[in-house]
Amino acid sequence: MGSVEGMTQVPSIKLNNDVEIPQFGFGVFQIDPDETAKAVRDAFEAGYRHIDTAQMYQNEQGVGQAIAESGLPRDEVFVTTKLNNGGHGTESAVRELEKSLERLGLDHVDLYLIHWPQPKQDLYVQTWRGFEQALASGLTRSIGVSNFQPAHLDRLAAETDTVPAVNQIELHPTLTQPELREYHRKHGIATEAWSPIGQGESLTEEAIVALAEKYGRTPAQIVLRWHIQIGNIVFPKSSNPKRIAENIDIFDFELADDDVATIEGLNADKRRGPNPDTFGN
Ligand SMILES: NC(=O)c1ccc[n+]([C@@H]2O[C@H](COP(=O)([O-])OP(=O)(O)OC[C@H]3O[C@@H](n4cnc5c(N)ncnc54)[C@H](OP(=O)(O)O)[C@@H]3O)[C@@H](O)[C@H]2O)c1
């Protein structure tokens, strides 16, 4: 695959273990396993070099196929996967990553996440010890969590040795998560924003549509650019090649500070997904 202009435009963020992650990537939640290889191929063509999958999505194989077929050097693609909710436990966390690697056709991932804390099950601390082992043995270059609340992060800090490199949380204009972002900032944890365009819902917000007109951009580009400017790592999903290209085309303009603040002001603490304190038990 030849060089793509978009690729060089995507900035990287240095995680707390010095590993660099492209701030913009491609999410494959709800992409049919049979269509995943094509979607990831389209994303590579458009310049994406960061793929966010999960055991739960059942499409790691398609991601791996697209990586193999792309011919891209392994160190030019950043790959994240996540431990499924049934796999908590120290040994299980390592074993399940080995199975993911087999499906992906890789010998390591770049980031391995605990998908949900499942606090009632109360195994996330033991699971994190398995993550530390996987990191030490080179099965993954970094470890992090997803959907963790401050109380869950506090327990990892008190009972284990490794601060998560990232926390991947639901975050979009109507759920801007100011408290968690502040917690992350204080503790050196990078914020990854899932459902960055609210699964499409953010795109019809009046203020977003007005900003799209002002900047001559699409609503999706306005929202994704806002994420980039407030320091979030994002990976919007699309199965549509035109939208895949549209979403990454956000590195040649900048929102003014007061427009960033306007989007921040849309916060209504409104989740689309489940509450992490009760989900998955
Ligand atoms: N850790 C977690 O618990 C968790 C939970 C959810 C998601 N995630 C991750 O976050 C990624 C992104 O989140 P998401 O997939 O939930 O939602 P999203 O990226 O906010 O939105 C995806 C939806 O928006 C549409 N869309 C994409 N680009 C568009 C554009 N330019 N204009 C209009 N519509 C557009 C897509 O439809 P088309 O496909 O038809 O374009 C799709 O229906 C996931 O793929 C996954 O990797 C993680």
Give a brief description.
41% of the residues lie in helices and 13% in strands. By secondary structure, the protein is α/β, with parallel strands linked by helices. Strands 3-4-5-6-7-8-9-10 form an eight-stranded parallel beta sheet.
What is the fold's blueprint, element by element?
Blueprint: H1 5-9, E1 12-14, E2 20-22, E3 26-27, H2 33-46, E4 50-52, H3 60-70, E5 78-83, H4 90-104, E6 111-114, H5 124-136, E7 143-146, H6 150-159, E8 166-170, H7 178-187, E9 190-194, H8 206-215, H9 219-229, E10 233-234, H10 241-248, H11 257-264
Parallel strand pairs: 3-4, 4-5, 5-6, 6-7, 7-8, 8-9, 9-10
Antiparallel strand pairs: 1-2
Bound molecules: NADP nicotinamide-adenine-dinucleotide phosphate.
Written as H for each helix and E for each strand, in order along the chain, the element string is HEEEHEHEHEHEHEHEHHEHH
**Globular, elongated, flat, extended or rod-shaped: what is the shape?**
globular
Number of helices: 11
Identify the strand order in the major beta sheet.
3-4-5-6-7-8-9-10
Strand content: 5-15%
Low-confidence stretches: none
Q: How many beta-strand runs? A: 10
Which ions and ligands are bound to the chains?
A: NADP nicotinamide-adenine-dinucleotide phosphate
Please state the average pLDDT score.
96
What is the distance, rounded to the nearest whole angstrom, between the alpha carbons of the first and last residues?
Answer: 44 Å
> What structural category characterises the helix and strand content?
alpha/beta
Helix content: 40-55%
Radius of gyration: 18 Å
> What characterizes the major β-sheet?
8 strands, parallel
